């Protein structure tokens, strides 16, 4: 199953959700691939720490190879060449870096929007689960991810800005479905940074449910453990396996995979 975690609004927890679900998938015994398409490389740093800096092969190298050039190299666009192992058993990574930004215009001009989908197809049965992290924008890389994926998870931060962005986001996804990927399904809205004792977040979520939007449970609590897990480059299932938020992530994972 290929899942893209997408929201054009920044700060809603895309990378955190992608990395933690991917890490749980690997712990559950599924060979899992995490794809980082955000030039900021937050997902890459989350699972590799300082080792994410200076990697020789990244998604920028892969996309450059699809253009038929790379300074000092003529490697073919075979996606497996750019996969790196993480310290966590069963979890591999296609890392990102800032070079992705410089390639975007060239990739759009040459209409390479299907290259990621086609490349993931070549991996065949190598991976049982693929999680794709995206930049906080509707651009070439996020569109490529939506075209390549089968399911879309939408992180939702509990504020009015996120709510307004959500409606626009759903329209963009509908366009992708109509024009490029009719198999893409919105799997659900992942409520993040939820404060159970606060009235406003609770009201926002209730209104989304009343509008029949696919709000997933459980909601993910706000916790300092997330920042700590970023600092130590260890997803929650490895950093704080008995924490309440880790249990919420595990329950979300189980629900998504039919075992809730």
Shape by Cα distribution: globular
Helical residue percent band: 40-55%
Which fold does the CATH topology refer to? Rossmann fold
- Please identify the top-level CATH class: Alpha Beta
CATH second-level architecture: 3-Layer(aba) Sandwich
Q: Describe the largest sheet.
A: 7 strands, mixed
Name the strands of the widest sheet in spatial order. Answer: 3-4-2-5-1-6-7
C-alpha termini separation: 17 Å
Q: What percent of residues are in strands?
A: 5-15%
Chain-averaged pLDDT? 92
Return the string of H and E elements. EHEHHEEHHEHEHEHHHH
Structural class: alpha/beta
Describe the protein's architecture and organization.
The protein is of the alpha/beta class and 260 residues long. It has a single domain, classed as P-loop containing nucleotide triphosphate hydrolases (Rossmann fold, 3-Layer(aba) Sandwich), CATH 3.40.50.300. Helices cover 44% and strands 13% of the residues. It has eleven helices and seven strands. It has helices spanning 14-27, 42-48, 59-66, 99-109, 115-122, 140-148, 160-179, 199-210, 224-231, 236-239, 244-256, and strands at 2-5, 32-36, 84-85, 91-94, 129-133, 151-157, 185-192. It has a seven-stranded mixed sheet, sandwiched between helices. A hairpin with a 5-residue loop joins strand 3 and strand 4. Helix 1 runs parallel beside helix 2 and helix 1 crosses helix 11. The chain is globular. The model has no long low-confidence stretch (mean pLDDT 92).
């Amino acid at each position: 199953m290929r899942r893209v975690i997408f929201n054009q609004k920044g700060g809603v927890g895309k990378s955190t959700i992608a990395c933690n679900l991917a890490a749980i998938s690997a712990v559950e015994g599924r060979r899992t691939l995490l794809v980082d398409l955000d030039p900021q490389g937050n997902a890459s740093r989350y699972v590799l720490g300082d080792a994410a800096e200076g990697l020789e092969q990244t998604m920028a190298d892969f996309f450059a190879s699809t253009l038929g050039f790379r300074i000092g190299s003529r490697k073919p666009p075979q996606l497996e060449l750019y996969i790196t192992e993480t310290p966590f058993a069963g979890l591999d990574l296609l890392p990102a870096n800032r070079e992705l930004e410089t390639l975007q215009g060239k990739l759009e001009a040459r209409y390479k929007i299907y290259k990621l989908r086609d490349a993931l197809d070549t991996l065949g049965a190598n991976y049982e689960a693929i999680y794709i992290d995206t930049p906080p924008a509707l651009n070439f890389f996020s569109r490529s991810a939506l075209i390549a994926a089968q399911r879309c998870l939408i992180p939702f931060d509990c504020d009015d800005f996120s709510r307004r962005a959500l409606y626009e986001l759903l329209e963009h996804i509908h366009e992708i479905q109509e024009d490029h990927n009719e198999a893409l399904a919105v799997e659900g809205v992942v409520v993040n940074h939820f404060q159970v004792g606060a009235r406003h977040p609770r009201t926002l979520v209730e209104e989304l449910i009343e509008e029949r939007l696919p709000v997933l449970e459980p909601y993910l609590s706000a916790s300092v453990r997330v920042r700590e897990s970023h600092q130590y480059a260890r997803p929650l299932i490895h950093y704080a396996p008995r924490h309440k938020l880790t249990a919420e992530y595990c329950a979300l994972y189980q629900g998504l995979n039919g075992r809730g």
